[in-house]
DNA sequence: GCAAGGTC
């Protein structure tokens, strides 16, 4: 029998139908196996990695195992998907040849190799080869199976090296900071090649915000009139008040139009969705991990294409027109017609061959889906149709005005043709009006204003912008970025959106920068990529790479002052509980626990000031401060329902006030 | 109970 192994069930089914024509499906151990009619060939799908690299059980006890022993420990591959492994073994016994047909990339090669190790245990002599395809289309698949090659063991080795390096660094440093700070059990503090640089970006942005000193500047605006009134802005940003005032004084009753331009500007369509772009747009109404799991669901139920892709160019093989036409019989009829009127796809910069950009594959109606599913589905449909629709056209007017030597500028834009904007309703079409003017025309100056402004600190990252930044620095993959971000939340490193780091995050990043800075930098990923390329080329050995990591970490462990490290982090943890200053003694107030939780003074027992807290729901200290007393605004996240925020001091005062009114009335 | 990477 000929056994074909793919990366997942879905591709197994599709490949079987392309290769065999008619397929008979059997369940073995609850796993789908797709047989040819004669029963001589079978395709089975894995579930990505079905084995997991880990330390042997003896290393499980964090407090008893010396960290140094993690450096050169023998690692084990533990089967994660028991049933798939058993099915594979059963099929392997009957097989005389095996074709590995997992995804054609580094991880795919390792996933295939893992399956092969299981197969060879029960059938060591089986003939093995590899089919490489970059799209599941009949021609591509037939071609790949006609021109089969060898399994690329070096490539699998490279991926395995990544696993070892990630595990070793992650385990050693995670345990180091957790142990030294006493954060054990479910409260442990983690470190990793991808999560730590991501966290560092967030922490560093927060530092910029905290250290930001606003500088004042002045702007001048004026209202001009010919037949209509309009506002224009002085071209200069004044850094000195006197200069602004001088310029302001010079502006008289009249001004002259110096330049006037009227033109049409074409605004291109948005590019096809890859995972990052999709998550960014969904981010306007949903967190990325939720958007991803819904997309996953829509994909599994056949509504949209595979949601994990880097590709922003539709492949030729995709019949765009056929897909659009389906939507003529849906509530997107109007949008489909707009797309059909043009049918020229936009394209992004990145083109890969593995999966097409995310697009709808079937028409759904509102009733088929939950509310959130529909929102994601609608986003994918509208985006898809927009990428094929006509460009938008704006009529733009620009004017430059001379007011006694002071130069003002204004612009206006009016939409001429909506084009894709009518389809993709997630961007607002905002028009600004500017009257038609002529060069040399004299305008009345109706009014003028001097504005005092202040420079603002940079904004915090949002879930979408940090995922974009991770992509830019090559941190994580399209499949893992949203999960790693979620990890930062569950570890208590960050809160809210825009993302605010906690004090623990500051402490952990500071500690890591001191002890093992490489793990907080994207360079580590870049270096690992280089090493993996050389392993694939056969120019570098896995052992060398692993040993290099081991030696580095060994050095870290030798020179680290665990007590000092623990102190720094514990102080950070403590700072996270501080909510403000005690109105009675001026010492710090912090969240404390006795019978229940409450806010108490660090001057206790001398100062007995306390504030009550709600006892239910998760409690967070936000980055916002109350205007009245400077106390931190707190957030309660109930297990059900919406979260709410409050100032603990204001609420207490209000509550007391109400009590007084009730008793007096 | 550690990471990151596949997939669900």
Automatic annotation (TrEMBL):
Domain annotation Toprim: ranges: 1-134
Functional summary from the UniProt entry: Releases the supercoiling and torsional tension of DNA, which is introduced during the DNA replication and transcription, by transiently cleaving and rejoining one strand of the DNA duplex. Introduces a single-strand break via transesterification at a target site in duplex DNA. The scissile phosphodiester is attacked by the catalytic tyrosine of the enzyme, resulting in the formation of a DNA-(5'-phosphotyrosyl)-enzyme intermediate and the expulsion of a 3'-OH DNA strand. The free DNA strand then undergoes passage around the unbroken strand, thus removing DNA supercoils.
Enzyme Commission number(s): 5.6.2.1
InterPro entries the UniProt entry points to: Topo_IA (IPR000380), Topo_IA_2 (IPR003601), Topo_IA_AS (IPR023406), Topo_IA_cen (IPR013497), Topo_IA_cen_sub1 (IPR013824), Topo_IA_cen_sub2 (IPR013825), Topo_IA_cen_sub3 (IPR013826), Topo_IA_core_domain (IPR023405)
Enzyme class: isomerase
Biological processes, Gene Ontology terms: DNA recombination; DNA repair; DNA topological change
Catalytic center residues: 306
GO molecular function: DNA binding; DNA topoisomerase type I (single strand cut, ATP-independent) activity; zinc ion binding
Keyword Metal-binding: yes
Complex and partners: Monomer.
Reaction(s) this enzyme catalyzes, per UniProt: ATP-independent breakage of single-stranded DNA, followed by passage and rejoining
Keywords: DNA-binding, Isomerase, Magnesium, Metal-binding, Repeat, Topoisomerase, Zinc, Zinc-finger
NCBIfam families membership: PRK07220.1, topA_arch
GO cellular component term, pick one: chromosome
Name this protein carries in UniProt: DNA topoisomerase 1
Protein family per UniProt: Belongs to the type IA topoisomerase family.
Residues under site feature: Interaction with DNA: 49, 162, 166, 308, 491
Gene: topA
Segments of this protein annotated with the region Interaction with DNA: 190-195
Gene3D superfamilies given in the database record: 3.40.50.140, Bacterial Topoisomerase I, domain 1, Topoisomerase I, domain 2, Topoisomerase I, domain 3, Topoisomerase I, domain 4
Ribonucleoprotein is among the record's keywords: no
Origin superkingdom: Archaea
PROSITE patterns per UniProt: TOPO_IA_1, TOPO_IA_2, TOPRIM
Organism: Geoglobus ahangari
Domain Topo IA-type catalytic residues, every copy: 152-557
The protein's required cofactors: Mg(2+)
Residues forming coiled coils: none
A UniProt-annotated Pfam family: Topoisom_bac
């Amino acid at each position: 029998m000929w056994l074909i192994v793919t990366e997942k069930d879905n591709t197994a089914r599709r490949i079987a139908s392309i290769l065999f024509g008619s397929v008979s499906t059997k369940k073995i151990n609850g796993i789908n196996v797709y047989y040819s009619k004669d029963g001589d060939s079978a395709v089975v799908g894995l579930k990505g990695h079905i084995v997991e690299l880990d330390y042997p059980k003896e290393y499980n006890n964090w407090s008893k195992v010396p960290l140094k022993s993690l450096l050169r420990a023998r690692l084990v591959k533990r089967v994660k998907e028991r049933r798939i492994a058993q099915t594979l073994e059963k099929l392997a016994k009957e097989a005389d040849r095996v074709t590995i047909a997992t995804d054609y990339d580094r991880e795919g090669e390792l996933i295939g190799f893992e399956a092969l190790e299981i197969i060879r245990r029960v059938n060591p002599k089986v003939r093995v080869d590899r089919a490489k395809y970059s799209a599941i289309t009949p021609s591509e698949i037939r071609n790949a199976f006609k021109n089969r090659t060898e399994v690329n063991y070096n490539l699998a080795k490279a991926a395995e090296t990544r696993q070892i390096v990630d595990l070793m660094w992650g385990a050693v440093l995670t345990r180091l900071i957790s142990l030294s700070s006493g954060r054990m059990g479910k409260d442990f503090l983690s470190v990793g090649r991808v999560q730590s640089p991501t966290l560092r970006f967030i922490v560093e942005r927060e530092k910029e915000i905290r250290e930001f000193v606003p500088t004042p500047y002045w702007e001048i605006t004026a209202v001009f009139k010919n037949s209509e009134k309009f506002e224009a802005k002085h071209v200069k940003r004044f850094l000195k008040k006197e200069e602004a005032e001088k310029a302001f004084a010079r502006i008289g009753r009249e001004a002259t139009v110096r330049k006037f331009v009227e033109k049409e500007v074409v605004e291109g369509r948005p590019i096809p969705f890859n995972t990052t772009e999709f998550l960014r747009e969904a981010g306007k109404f949903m967190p990325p991990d939720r958007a991803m799991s819904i997309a996953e669901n829509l994909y599994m139920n056949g509504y949209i294409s595979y949601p994990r892709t880097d590709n922003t160019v539709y492949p030729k093989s995709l019949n765009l027109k056929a897909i659009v036409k389906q939507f003529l019989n849906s509530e997107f009829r109007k949008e489909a017609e707009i797309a059909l009127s043009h049918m020229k796809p936009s394209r992004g910069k990145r083109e890969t061959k593995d999966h097409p950009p995310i697009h709808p594959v079937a028409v759904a109606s509102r009733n088929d889906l939950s509310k959130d599913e529909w929102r994601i589905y609608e986003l994918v449909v509208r985006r898809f149709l927009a990428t094929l629709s006509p460009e938008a056209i704006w009529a733009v007017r620009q004017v430059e005005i001379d007011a006694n030597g002071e130069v003002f500028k204004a612009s206006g834009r009016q939409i001429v043709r909506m084009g894709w904007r009518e389809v993709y309703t997630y961007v607002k079409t905002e028009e600004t009006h500017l009257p038609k003017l002529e060069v040399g025309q004299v305008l009345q100056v109706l009014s003028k204003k001097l504005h005092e402004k202040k420079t603002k600190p940079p904004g915090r990252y949002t879930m979408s912008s940090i995922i974009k930044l991770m992509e830019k620095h090559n941190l994580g993959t399209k499949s893992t970025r949203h999960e790693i971000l979620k990890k930062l939340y569950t570890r208590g490193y960050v809160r809210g959106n825009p993302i605010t780091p906690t004090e623990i995050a500051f402490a952990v990043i500071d500690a890591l920068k001191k002890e093992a800075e490489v793990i907080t930098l994207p360079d580590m990923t870049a270096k690992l990529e280089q090493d993996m390329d050389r392993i694939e080329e056969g120019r570098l050995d896995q052992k060398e790479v692993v040993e290099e990591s081991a030696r580095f970490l060994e050095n870290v462990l030798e020179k680290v002052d665990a007590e000092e490290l623990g102190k720094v982090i514990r102080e950070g943890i403590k700072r996270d509980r501080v909510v403000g200053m005690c109105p009675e003694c001026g010492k710090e107030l912090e969240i404390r626990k006795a019978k229940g939780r409450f806010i108490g003074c660090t001057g206790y027992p001398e100062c007995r000031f306390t504030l009550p807290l709600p006892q239910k729901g998760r409690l967070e200290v936000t980055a916002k401060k109350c205007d009245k007393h400077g106390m931190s605004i707190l957030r309660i996240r109930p297990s059900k329902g919406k979260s709410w925020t409050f100032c603990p001091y204001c609420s207490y005062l209000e509550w007391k006030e109400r009590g007084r009114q009730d008793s007096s009335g």
